[in-house]
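Hi, can you check this record?
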Amino acid sequence: MRFSIITIAFNSEKTIERTIKSVLAQTCKDYEYVIVDGASKDGTIDIVRNYEPLFDGRLKWKSEPDKGIYNAMNKGIERSTGDIIGIVNSDDWLEPDALDIVAKSFENNGRNTNALYCGGIMFHTENGILRHLKADKEVFLRKSRNYVLAGIRHPATFVPKQVYSNVGLFDETIKIAADADFILRCKFNGVNIITINSYLSNMADGGLSNRKGIYRIGKNDRRIILKKNGVTGFHYCYQMTYWILKNKFKLLLIKLSLFRIS
């Protein structure tokens, strides 16, 4: 069993070195590392080139324009040759034993390739607070009834390549929630959700600016996800209203500095 680790990057010179080091530091060495760069104009590729020899041929990268983050992720998946794929973006970083932990879970679950292996993340806020967010299958199953992703953290989710073959890649018409759409599609198509009681990845708070734009894009993503799942009529109106009220309340809490990721 071999891993493929994918990093999506664009003008990431301030953070990508930390990401690369976290992959290089993995206690499990049975992996390939695929970096998909969107034609960065800063020093991102210089950093990649500097670290390339340290991977002993396991690092492959390409820098070219893309059509957005999910297009870049799909390119990375298509270029991967491993059995299990993990995506660690250029402002995130893995725990040193992340791949070993996932490999053990894979073995303990009968080498199940029709499953998502979902761990926890450590979320580092801008004000220095560290939040530990575990994978919670019960929350995920409950929220998924409303076509909402909760309890499962995409940056700490490892996916057998067979799942992408069966369920499909990321929907590039969805701009900021295609990872949620993918995990929900997996659930609705009978893919098993296997939670791991360990923290696998770290995320740095990128800030909560431009929330207006994010809300508008997210609202359109929500429409696409519901329509894809055949939600129509009253049920569609209910689900859209549920999402709008929830997110408007969240925006209010952000404005009042009371919102906390959980």
